[in-house]
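Students often ask why inverse folding is considered easier than folding. One informal answer: many sequences map to the same fold, so there is more than one right answer. In these notes we will look at a single instance of the problem. The structure comes first.
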């Protein structure tokens, strides 16, 4: 459905229609697409942002998802599905977010050249319509300069999910990106970070600097890492108060076994890296939590 007619995005109108004509409706989902040919101009319907956060929609567990694709912005309102940051297996941190802070943006349209203004303009266009609290970038080796610009445009983010990072290519950080990075480090609200593929340990160093309020860090694939060195590096940064909020670390090791977990526990104890902590193995994942 094309969303040039703003009435399609009016949650109050949908609520009234369902209550009046479809009181026994069990399933509801809505998908809207927006042609981005004219994305440079602010939308004419910005007075009616996508809401769907009244008690009516909360009771039905509906969430807003937005996707920036190559030619269209896609807006969907769908039933609640558990997200990665809500499946922590922990008892220490509260990884749930309120319904009013559940709007998610997925970025499929990543530019290949050095100019990222088009994508950033598309993000600002989306913000005219809906605030964004979660972002996912399923793109291989996204350049950190672009990531910095994306986060600079989305100051209300709570969670960040990435496929993988490129630290040095295609270029060094620009002066503008360095300024944004400096500002982000003082204002970032990102608590939950998921890196699907770690290429180098420097990827984690960068994310810890970028997201100093991070509480939960998940790494799905850590390529040929020394687990003890990896964990020690992270915990030492916490000890230096670079990431004093971090409380939960989850990483995927295909070869993990009980002996590896025991060795890791012995290393933590011998180096006095943590005192009040738990370490658990769940299939091929290790969960390390502390207070």
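Output (designed amino acids):
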């Amino acid at each position: 459905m094309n969303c040039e007619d703003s009435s399609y995005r009016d949650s109050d109108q949908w609520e009234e229609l369902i209550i009046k004509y479809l009181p026994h409706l069990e399933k509801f989902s809505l998908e809207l697409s927006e042609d981005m040919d004219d994305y440079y101009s602010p939308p004419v319907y910005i007075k009616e942002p996508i809401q769907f956060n009244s008690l009516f929609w909360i009771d039905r567990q509906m969430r807003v998802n937005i996707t920036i694709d190559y030619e269209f912005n896609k807006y969907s309102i769908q039933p609640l599905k558990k997200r990665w940051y809500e499946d922590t297996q922990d008892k220490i941190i509260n990884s749930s977010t309120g319904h009013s802070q559940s709007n998610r943006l997925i970025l499929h349209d990543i530019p290949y050249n050095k100019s990222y203004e088009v994508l950033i303009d598309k993000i600002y266009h989306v913000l005219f319509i809906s605030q964004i609290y979660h972002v996912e970038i399923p793109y291989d080796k996204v350049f950190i300069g672009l990531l910095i610009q994306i986060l600079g445009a989305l100051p209300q983010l709570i969670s960040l999910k990435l496929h993988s990072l490129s630290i040095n290519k295609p270029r060094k950080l620009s002066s503008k990106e360095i300024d944004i990075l400096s500002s982000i480090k003082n204002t970032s609200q990102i608590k939950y970070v998921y890196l699907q593929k770690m290429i180098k340990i420097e990827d984690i160093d960068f994310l810890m600097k970028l997201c100093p309020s991070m509480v939960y860090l998940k790494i799905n694939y850590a390529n040929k890492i020394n687990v003890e060195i990896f964990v020690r590096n992270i915990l030492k940064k916490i000890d230096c108060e670079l990431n004093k909020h971090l409380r939960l670390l989850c990483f995927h090791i295909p070869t993990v076994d009980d002996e590896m977990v025991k060795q890791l526990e012995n290393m933590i104890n011998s180096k006095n890296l943590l005192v009040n902590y738990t370490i658990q193995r769940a299939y091929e994942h290790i969960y390390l939590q502390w207070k």
